[in-house]
Amino acid sequence: MKPLIVANWKMNPQTYKEAEDVFAGIKKGVEGASAEVVICPPFTWLTDFSHKNESPISFGAQNVFYEDKGAYTGEISPQMLKSSNVDYVIIGHSERRKYFNETDEIINKKIKKALEAGLKIIFCIGETAEERDAGKKNEILERQIKQGLSGIVNLENVNIAYEPVWAIGTGNNCSVEQTKEAIDFIRKFVPENTWVLYGGSVKAENSVSYIKEAGANGLLVGGASLKPDEFIKIVKSVE
Ligand code: PGA
């Protein structure tokens, strides 16, 4: 099975022109790559790219709402994504938990609705530095998995991304040993064939070790996914 490499652009870059350039650079560089590449741009560019897409790259959203339609100003439903050639959605990212008060319960509702619509999920979990220091890492991961996936029987379209919060955007990436330990722990709660990715300060120089040594099935890449040359190196490194 191909490793899954997901680009999370977050709220970047700032202009359509820059976004087009980053996408064009990535598209050209990953042609013929054996990894599955998923790009998750902000909504403003997501569907423009996904409608025009003629490459093997897949698209993902960075968020979705848990209702099908109606009076929810500013929200986007899973069906809207599905009908716009968007196949994936990131749910449970620590930035959404922190800045938008997304609870395990909200995340669970979003995952359920997105699965119903036929989307594939990148379900993010991870502990903060304080939780790790207090020896609560496993407790937090177990709670996030159990509550986030509560009532969901078929996990075929669910990929879990282990993203320790302290490793995101800090350059302070999780060591291979720490990642392996967390991934092995996560696997206790999901079927054998559920994919577990790693995310948090992934760069070309450390990418392959997460796949080959820590046993991740793929990577969730933030900052480095906005630099086409670096991102292409990451994609190629895991082949
Ligand atoms: P980072 O972000 O690669 O910039 O650390 C990863 C993420 O938040 O998904």
Summary keywords:
single chain, 239 residues, alpha/beta, TIM Barrel, eight-stranded parallel β-barrel, 10 helices, binds 2-phosphoglycolic acid
Write up this protein.
The protein is about 40% helix and about 15% strand. The chain is of the alpha/beta class and about 240 residues long. The chain has one domain (about 5-235): Aldolase class I (TIM Barrel, Alpha-Beta Barrel), CATH 3.20.20.70. α1 (about 15-30) packs parallel to α10. The longest helix has 14 residues, at about 15-30. The N and C termini lie close together (about 10 Å). About 40% of the residues are buried. The mean pLDDT is about 95. Bound molecules: 2-phosphoglycolic acid. 2-phosphoglycolic acid binds near residues 199, 200 and 224.
